[in-house]
Write a structure and sequence with these properties.
By secondary structure, the protein is mainly β. It has one helix spanning about 5-10, and strands at about 20, 25-30, 40-45, 55, 60. A hairpin with a 6-residue loop joins strand 3 and strand 4. The protein is globular.
Length: about 80
């Protein structure tokens, strides 16, 4: 079970473990498991964060080639 609501409503597919980039806050992260209390958002753990954040699916783009930033690079982001 995953993000069926988002696929049906927005036509965008996300799978647990996908690498994504948030187009508004300019951060990369990994798609996490669905939060049943807010199935209309994608749960993303951004690089350097400990917990997942709820993101609108239209603000995300997927990339198979994204990697985590080097440890020395700042991962600060706007929330």
């Amino acid at each position: 079970m995953g993000y069926e609501y988002i696929a049906k409503t927005y036509g965008a597919t996300f799978n647990i473990g996908d690498r994504v980039y948030h187009n508004e806050v300019k951060c990369a992260g990994t798609v996490m498991r669905v939060n049943k209390s807010c199935e209309h958002y994608v749960q993303v753990r951004f690089d350097g964060d400990r917990h997942a954040s709820s993101c609108h699916p239209m603000a995300l783009s997927r990339s198979e080639t994204m990697t985590a930033p080097p440890a020395s690079q700042s991962t600060a982001r706007i929330t």
